[in-house]
Amino acid sequence: MRNVFDMPLVGRVLRSAWLWRGLRLLCLAVLVWMIAAGWHHRGIPGVAAPDPLMYTNLATHLFWVWWIMGVVFVALLFGRLWCAVCPLGWVNGLATRLGLQRPLPAWLNNFIPVTLALLGVQLAVYFLAIHRFPDLTARLLALMLVLALACGLVFRGHAFCRLLCPAGAVFGLYARLAPWQLRVGSQDICASCADQACVSGGRVWRRLALGPALLYWHGRRKDCPVDLVPAQMTDSAACTLCLHCVHNCGNDNLILGRRPWLGDLGRTRLSASETLFFLVLLGLLTVNFTKVYPDLRHLLWAAPEQAAILLGWQSSGFYLLAAPWAALLLPLLLMLPGYLVWRLSDLRMSVQPPPAVGDTLPEPQADPGFWNRLGHLALPLVPLVLTVHIILAAVKINTKGSLLPLVLHDPSGVKSYLAMNVVHSLPTPGLLMSLDLLKWLIAALLVAGTAAGILSIRPCLAALPAAVSRRGFAAGVLTTLALLAGLYGTTILRWLFIR
Predict the structure, then answer these.
(1) In this protein, which residues make up the domain named 4Fe-4S ferredoxin-type (predicted)?
(2) Reported pTM
(3) Which spans in 175-213 are helix H?
(4) Would you call 258 helix, strand, or coil by DSSP?
């Protein structure tokens, strides 16, 4: 694996802490600009449309089109690279230096809080339509900034990223597939290192030279914000690529280099709480993907709709039922056939003579349990889930991405909307790519994602317990992949090819 840090110019630039500080500061400035551009804007006086600024205002356009959707392409290629420049994580880290430095309680150190945060955002979309109104989007961004600051003042490390940032959890899933990784060069060098400078976070003297002038000060070495030890890293799911360990290592023993795609699959299963997050992500992506196929959409939403009618609830009551249905019950039903195939494959029946009186019966083999099995079953599905996310992002950017020059020229979006839709002095920008080309690209992506899921089965076998059936696991994964690929493929066929 070639070390990018050894490349003459690129390595020196990437090692520079000032590069990353500058990028974080730039992203923070853009975040503040988005908040300011959307804070006082919702509608346009005299315009009947309830949400005229949905795609022309800077806040809604950059956040819901380019960030929520576009950043998935960064995750595909570079894993959690966005976390290295995220302004919220940076504010969290800066606040940590002045805060109480309390360790995160064990009952919070899992994926349940971030799963609830993802559900909270989805409920806000359902009930408040925050994605349609710049003022609500700006308030969401401001709330995230305040929460990042508050978490930093109380807890050590990047607590906001662990507790309240669904994007970080999503990137953790996708980072297992990306073709880049940060690892130690030699385990022997790490074993012989006495001070563990890469993770110790102790005091250190720093020196700044400007010509003949020298400035020394007593600072604190930055430790890993997610408490990783480079020598013990087995996958890239948690590493945020902050490069603190690279800057601290006195032995130059960290390597950033390429690896095969799907490189971290099979190292370990998903934990129970991360499996829960995966189910919520699978459900939300599936209902958003299939909403363009009316018949299938009605079929998927039939259960909460009928339940709301039986209970006599109005539309708000339907949304209360729709959220748990889409986020938990529907993805569980989608994975249930594959789970049952795997579970039934473990059944063994044999004819044996009855035990004699006093004989000790053999102990039954311990079963991994429902959530552990789902954690194993979910891992080979990550490539297909990433593919669905990429398809949704490609469609959104293809449809609305051409508005970006207008948004940058008019951050409020008012003049652009009036010019395009009222006085008609400006033509509405079209698609970035024709539908005839886009549909074949989407079909090819779905085929590639399904194939990647099939190829993921073999490395994932290494993480299975010895007591379970390997063939049953493969059959269960193939069953789930066939069900999901059929669901998404039918939607694409009806949406783009039969019009």
Answers:
(1) 60-98, 140-177
(2) 0.93
(3) 187-192, 197-200
(4) strand
Rounded to an integer, what distance in angstroms lies between the CA atom of residue 116 and that of residue 103? 21
What one-character-per-residue DSSP string does 401-454 give? GGGHHHHHH-TT-HHHHHHHHTS--SPPP--SS-HHHHHHHHHHHHHHHHHHHH
Torsion of CA 458, 387, 408, 18, to 10 degrees: -10
C-alpha separations of 351 from 345, 354, 366, 367, 468 in Å: 18, 9, 22, 22, 21
Alpha-carbon span 348 to 302, nearest angstrom: 38
Looking at residue 109, the DSSP 8-state letter turns out to be: S
In which residue are the tokens 């993770």 written?
A: 199
Max Cα distance, the chain (Å): 95
Residue pLDDT, tens place only, 220-248: 777 888 888 888 888 889 999 988 888 88
71: helix, strand or coil: helix
Q: For the segment 441-493, what is each residue's pLDDT rounded down to a tens digit?
A: 999 999 999 999 999 999 999 889 888 889 999 999 999 999 999 999 999 99
Instruction: Tally Cβ neighbours within 10 Å of residue 32.
Output: 14
For the chain, give every domain's residue range.
272-346+367-497
